[in-house]
Structure formats: C-alpha cells, structure tokens
Design brief:
Chain B: Pfam families: ABC_tran, oligo_HPY. Chain B: Belongs to the ABC transporter superfamily. Chain B: It comes from Kineobactrum sediminis. Chain B: This is ABC transporter ATP-binding protein. The complex is a heterodimer. By secondary structure, chain A is mainly α. Chain A has a single domain (40-58, 96-292), classed as MetI-like (MetI-like fold). In chain A, 71% of the residues lie in helices and 0% in strands. The termini of chain A are close together. In chain A, 40% of the residues are buried. Chain B has a domain at 272-528: 3-Layer(aba) Sandwich (Rossmann fold), CATH 3.40.50. Helices cover 37% and strands 25% of the residues of chain B. The longest helix of chain B has 18 residues, at 187-204. Chain B is globular and about 70 Å long. The chains are: A mainly alpha, B alpha/beta. Chains A and B meet through helix 1, helix 7 and helix 8 of A and helix 13, strand 16, helix 14 and helix 15 of B.
C-alpha cells in the first residue's frame, strides 16, 4: 500500500477509499471470491432462465413419471415427468429474488431505524424500540396471513412482508452498535467539525457497525428463503406450477426414499448458495475491517 | 546475593511478518528492600522482559531465546508451568496500570483478597478475612470494615489501586512487579500511591521492579534505574548517577523531555477572544435529585493568541468546561462570548459556522480517530465540509496539513491503526487545524503518550499555535506540562476556579492550599524547578 504516488492521488481513489480498499482485500480472499462468483453465476442463470432452461417449466410428461438423472434429463424428472433441472432453474428465480429483496428491505429499514434510535437516544429511542418490541411480540405468521388476506396474494408483497418482519433484529443490532460507538471521541470530533447528524451516522457510525450487520445479513438470506418455502407450503406463497427451491425441497423430502434425486439436487442448489453467502459474508467482514489487514 | 538476577535475557516474537527481538540481552538485578525502576517508552521491551520472567507471555508468538533469571538461586526461565504458578502471586506479585480491569467487577474486594490466601496457604476463610482487613488498613483504605464487602466500581481509581496493592501483598511476596501503577491516576493520587509503595517496600523489605515510561515518576523512589530502548538496556545505574550524569544520549533525551520551567510570558495586553461568565454545567438535574455540579459558576477570559492552561484532577470539571465552550455538552446557565457572539445561543447555520472557528484535540488518539477512515478521508472531511478546499484542490490541502503536522506524505492512505500514538495525535491535530480555527480546546492531548513523544507534540502545538495564530485552552492534570506550555494557568477544584495566574507566580507563591498540594504532588519536583 506504500506505493501510492504521494504528490497526486488518482481521482478514482478519492472519497470511496474504504470501499476500494475493501475490494482490494476481498480479491485476495479466494473463498470469498468463490462465493461471489457462485452467487453471480446463479443470479445470471436465474435472470436468463427463460432462454436457458431445457424444457418449459409447466411441461409435464405423465407417461414418463419420475426418472433418475439421464442424458435427456440431467437431474431426472419428478412424479409428473417434469424436468428437475428446469424446475430448479425456475425455482432459483423465486428463491434468490425473495432472499435478496426481502433481505435488502430488512437491511434498509433495520439499519436506518436502529441507527436513528441509537444516535438520537432518549425519548425517540424509547418510542422507536418499544415499537420494535410490539412487532416482535406479534406472531409474524398472523401478520403475513393478514397482509395476504387484505392485499391478495402477490409475490412482491410477499417479499416486502418477509422483509418487514426480518428487520426487527437488524434494528436491534444496529442500535446496540451505534449506542456504543457514539460514546467514542471520534464522534465528538465529528460534531465539533460541524457535520450534520445524517452525515455522522452515514460516514462515521454505519461503516464502523458493518461487521455484525454483514454477518447477520448472511444469516438472514437463507432464513428468508426457508420462510418462503414454509409460506408456500401453507399456500400463501408460490403456487404450482410455479415453484421455488424451498417448495422443491419439501416435496422432495416427502418422496426421498423412492426418488432421492428429487431432494438431493434442489438441496444441493440451496446448500451451495448458503455456502457461497457465508464465504462472501466472512470475506466482506474481514475486508471491511481495516484493522484486520496485515499491511 | 540479589533477590532476582536477570542475565542476558532474550525474548523474540515470531509473527507472519518475521521475527523480532523484543528483549535483547537484558541484564539487571533487584535487591531485597530496594526499588529497581525499568524505564522506557512503549515498545522498548520493558514490560515484555518482566512478563516473560513469570511465564505470562503467550507462547507463541513470544519465545524466550536465552538468558537466566535467578530468583533466590533458582532459574525462573527453566521452571515448569506448575512450578511458576506456585511462585506467581506468592513469592512474586504484580500490580497493573489499570486497577479497574484487573479487578473482577462481580466479586467484592474482600472475596478477591481472601481467594489467594485460601488457595496458596490453605488458611481458613475467617482467618483470611482478618488478614485482609489488616492489609486494607495498612494500605490506607478508608474504613476497611465497611468497605471490604463493596465491589470494585464503588471505589475511586486511587482507592482501587490501594486494593490492588493489598492484593499483591497478601501472600507476603518477596518481589513486587509494578507495571505503570500510577499512570492512570491523578497527580495528587499518584504521589500518595508512590509514597505508599516506597513505604511498604521499606517496611517489609521486599524487592520492587517499577516499570514506567516516565523518569520523573521514579525520581523520588527508585534506588536503581535501568533505561531500555528498543529491547536493549542502554544505561544502568543508581538514581544519582542517572539523574546527575547520564551518559547515554537516550537517557539524556528522556531527562530533557521532562517539561521544565515556565513559558516566557509576554506582557503585552491583547483583546479578549473569549469571555466566559458564570458558566454552569450540571448533570442529572430534575426528578428531585441533587444535580452533579460539574462546572459551577466559572468565569474567565482568554485573550487572542493566548494559551490558557486549565489544571485540576479528574472530576474537577476541567474537560466539561472545554466541551461546554465548544457546545459539545449542553450548559445549564451562563454565557460564552466568542469574539462578541454568544456561543450558547447559536443554532443551525450560525452554529456550524462557529464550529469552524473553534476546534478540539482529544486525549485519546486511539478513540478520537474513526478507525475506518484513512488519513486522507479524515483530513479531507473538514476541508470539504466548510468549503475550504474544492474537490479539485482538496488533495493539496490534505498534503499541506500533513506537512504542517510533520507526517510523511506517503502515509496519506493509511488507517489509524497503522500509526503510533504520537503519529495519531498528529493526525488529530491536523484535523483540528483543517478548518483554520481561531480557538482550540486541547483536552489532555499528551497524557496518553510517552514522555519523549509528549515533548514532541507539545513543541508541535506551540509551533503551530504561533504559525496559525491560535488561541488555546490547554486542559491537563499535569502541572508541569501546563506550566511549560501555558501563558496563564487556571486551577480548578470541584467545578470552581480556585486560583489563577502565570506559571511563575503559581509555582513560586501558591496562595491556595489546594494549589500547594498539587505542586507537592508533582513527581520529581526537584528536577523541574
């Protein structure tokens, strides 16, 4: 890092040095890169599925029935003779979309809510956190069922509803972080420089609270995917012939003794995604922690 | 035969970046009934040397590469862990810098005192408690019968250190290792603790290793002084030899770093930049509770270009005054006029503009810099915020600031954790100067630093002060430092100003009892006057 030209700093480096440095460190972490590439690959496949999938997602072949993997059907077929690879590809679209969207919603609300409560403190904090407590106490299933009943079944709404439940823990973590950080002198220094509260939270508090947030995010994405499967199983989420990984796994589990591939392949897709997320999450946490760098 | 005789001790650290020798062929002796002081700055290996004797270093990364340490004729370095465990706490005891972190917050001090007795000597609980009470009385704890069942947080820092000393003494050790035992304490308390250690050591005829970064602290109590630098012993001798004719240049540098003398004061009268009238900052009022009057009816003025020293012990309200002036704390009542404007009434844009004109330098350079912002970002932020530089010119502004505070330009992309304490404080000073302020509050800016670094930072502040035409409020518990840098000194006690005057006048004719007490407490008084 000492090779920086000292009389002029290239324009690209200015302002975002934390992120550019983090990227430089992330690139050195092979596992994290592997995780990143797996996620990118899965996302690209999900986006291009309508053009890539070997069969139509609703094409049945009742005469064929369940068959193990073969040259025509790489991952085999299910009891309706549908191609499992196609199912997994279409299922991935839903699962990844739910995972990322709902988590993004949770992140956005949770981090903002927690940061404001933690930074402002006092009565505002008390009111905001009591609200969180109340929402915690509500059985979230009922909450989601209510939303579905009122607004009708709608995938986007499902994403938002799950996100709106998952942000509670995020807000608590963020608030705890911010509360301990705002006692530090660098925050006082920022105040005495004349920075606005928004800038202080954005530039000085959030970056320092990222570690636990990232870890929790990587835990949230899989739990959101499983939650979607559960809701779909209850008939509140995705309905056949549309499918998701969660649904495929729960159907596969029912028939795993006769047709194990129906469980193994969707399970492998989900597992691989989770591994990739965890590697990337760990890598990101290390990369963003400037103290962890050995140079 | 000396109680402890260390010969050619060598300790290496192996890390990913290779191997470094932290302690290099170090030899020293400790006699019963004498104090051997080991002096050096952070990283000199003074603590590592002592910790390695007791097997207290994690191995790896540390490894003892050679030498002997004969304690009563037996080599500590050859002992097994279980043999060492019997020696630690019984024959050799330790006192640490921070009594709060070395006491268990969930145990009463009585229980903590009794534990080693019961463990090492199989004494009955009630007998051990009697012994604990005796010791607490001996170390001067107020009313031991009432306080023995209290928890550590219920004691002040000085009292906690007394408890630590009692704990160290409870097994009647022959050797006591004190690692910077007074660094976290106020001067007046420091003087008491130093006197206590010297007194106990003479009475009980124990050998003491006193580790410190500050020569002046041991000036009154040490028998032998060992000066270490970068793992090597550079000079060794009795107290008189070190203080009167030190030979090694580093020892002389340490002696020179002890702030001495009063600043030459110019008599010229300048306009008042800051007028503080009847300032009160109270905490925790309301709910029918008696508020804590941290700052109580304080009035003073600071002239343009003047450095005003603010002295007092912890809890005297000195930091609160600084923060009140800068609107970092809400004040209860009073008026702070800055160049004719009442700072306490400002809001919004007016406040932001005022913040540009007054800045702060904090005590702890480890906490006052955002760990996720590089030097560049830290310095660029205020420049851009107040429009002092545009996006295009900001990098020149940053580099100029780095030149001003004496940081190599090559460090611009580094993060705070990559710097030493002194360098961090330079970054913090650079940030404070970035807005081109007229007034700076420096809150104990050197008390977290090594003595030699202290001198450098003080010089830098004096130099930049005149270069930038700064007015400064210099807050410190250390009278010697304040006298060195300030034009005029305000002595604060329990939230009120008890005395003020130039350093010369205050040192030679203190009028108040409290000021006299403060002066008495300065370690190594003989050295600085």
């Amino acid at each position: 890092m000492n090779t920086v030209v000292v009389d002029s700093i290239s324009a690209a480096e200015q302002g975002t040095s934390l992120w550019t440095d983090a990227w430089a460190r992330l690139r050195k972490n092979r596992l994290a890169l592997f995780g990143l590439w797996v996620l990118v690959l899965f996302s690209v496949i999900a986006l291009l599925t309508p053009w890539l999938a070997p069969y139509a997602y609703d094409a049945q072949n009742l005469d064929l029935g369940p068959t193990p993997p073969s040259a025509a059907h790489w991952f085999g077929t299910d009891i309706f003779g549908r191609d499992l690879l196609t199912q997994i590809m279409y299922g991935g679209r839903i699962s990844l979309a739910v995972g990322f969207t709902a988590t993004a919603v949770a992140l956005l609300i949770g981090v903002t809510w927690g940061a404001i409560a933690g930074y402002v403190g006092g009565r505002v904090d008390a009111v905001m956190m009591r609200l969180v407590d109340i929402l915690y106490a509500l059985p979230f299933m009922i909450f989601i069922v209510l939303l579905m009943v009122v607004f009708g079944r709608n995938l986007l709404l499902l994403f938002l509803a799950i996100g709106a439940v998952e942000w509670l823990t995020m807000a608590r973590i963020m608030r705890g972080q911010v509360q301990s950080l705002r006692q530090q002198e660098f925050v006082e220094a920022a105040i005495s420089l004349g920075l606005s509260p928004t800038t202080i939270v954005r530039r000085h508090l959030v970056p320092n609270a990222l570690g636990p947030i990232i870890v929790y995010t990587t835990l949230t994405i899989p739990s959101v995917m499983l939650l979607e499967a559960f809701l779909s199983f209850l008939g509140l989420g995705v309905q056949p012939p549309q499918t998701s990984w969660g649904l495929l796994i729960s159907y596969g589990a029912e028939t795993m003794e006769e047709f194990p591939w129906l469980l193994i392949f969707p399970g492998a897709a989900l597992t691989l995604t989770l591994f990739a997320l965890n590697f990337l999450g760990d890598g990101l946490r290390d990369a963003l922690d400037v103290r962890g760098s050995g140079d | 035969m000396p109680l402890l005789s260390v010969t050619d001790l060598q300790v290496d650290f192996t890390t990913r970046n290779g191997r470094t020798t932290a302690v290099n062929k170090v030899s020293f002796d400790v006699e019963s009934g004498k104090i051997t002081a080991i002096i050096g700055e952070s990283g000199s290996g003074k603590s590592v040397a002592c910790y390695s004797l007791l097997g207290l270093l994690p191995t790896p990364p540390a490894s003892i590469e050679g030498g002997t340490a004969l304690f009563e004729g037996r080599d500590l370095l050859q002992m097994s862990e279980s043999e060492l465990r019997r020696i630690r706490g019984r024959d050799v005891a330790m006192i640490f810098q921070d009594p709060m972190t070395s006491l268990n917050p969930y145990m009463t001090i009585g229980d903590q005192l009794v534990e080693p007795l019961v463990y090492h000597h199989k004494v009955s609980k009630s007998a051990a408690r009697e012994r604990a009470l005796e010791l607490l009385t001996e170390v001067g704890l107020r009313d031991p019968h009432a306080t023995i069942d209290q928890y550590p947080h219920q004691f002040s820092g000085g009292m906690r250190q007394r408890v630590m000393i009692a704990m160290a003494l409870i097994n009647e050790p022959k050797l006591l290792i004190a690692d910077e035992p007074t660094t976290a304490l106020d001067v007046t308390i420091q003087a008491q603790i130093l006197a206590l250690i010297a007194d106990l050591q003479r009475k009980r005829n124990i050998g003491v290793i006193f580790i410190s970064h500050d020569l002046s602290v041991v000036a009154d109590i040490a028998d032998e002084i060992v000066v270490m630098q970068q793992g090597l012993v550079v000079e060794r001798g009795d107290r008189a030899a070190i203080f009167d004719h030190a030979e090694h240049p580093y020892t002389r540098k340490l002696l020179d770093a002890i702030p001495a003398g009063s600043k030459a004061v110019t008599a010229e009268q300048r306009e008042d930049l800051i007028t503080v009238s009847n300032l009160c900052t109270w905490f925790g009022q309301g709910k029918g509770k008696e508020p804590l009057r941290a700052v109580d009816n304080v009035s003073f003025t600071i002239q343009r270009g003047e450095i005003l020293g603010l002295v007092g012990e912890s809890g005297s309200g000195k930091s609160t005054i600084g923060r009140s002036l800068l609107r970092l704390l809400p004040i209860t009542s009073g008026e702070v006029l800055f160049d004719g404007v009442d700072v306490t009434q400002l809001q919004g844009v007016g406040l932001k503009q005022m913040r540009r004109r007054m800045q702060m330098i904090f005590q702890d350079p480890y906490a006052s810099l955002n760990p996720r912002m590089s030097v560049y970002d830290t310095l660029a932020e205020p420049l851009l915020l107040h429009g002092i530089e545009s996006r295009k010119t900001v990098e020149h502004g940053v580099l100029r600031l780095m030149d001003d505070v004496g940081l190599p330009r090559a460090f611009v992309r580094k993060y705070p954790h990559e710097f030493s304490g002194g360098q961090r404080q330079r970054i913090a000073i650079g940030r404070a100067l970035a807005t081109r302020p007229e007034f700076i509050v420096a809150d104990e800016p050197v008390s977290a630093l090594d003595v030699t670094i202290q001198a450098q930072i003080l010089d830098l502040m004096l130099e930049l002060g005149s270069e930038y035409g700064l007015t400064m409020l210099f807050v410190s518990h250390d009278l010697a430092v304040v006298r060195h840098i300030a034009d005029r000194i305000l002595v604060l006690y329990k939230g009120q100003v008890v005395e003020q005057g130039t350093g010369e006048v205050l040192f030679n004719n203190p009028r108040q009892e409290y000021t006299r007490q403060l002066l008495q407490s300065i370690p190594g008084r003989a050295l600085i006057s």
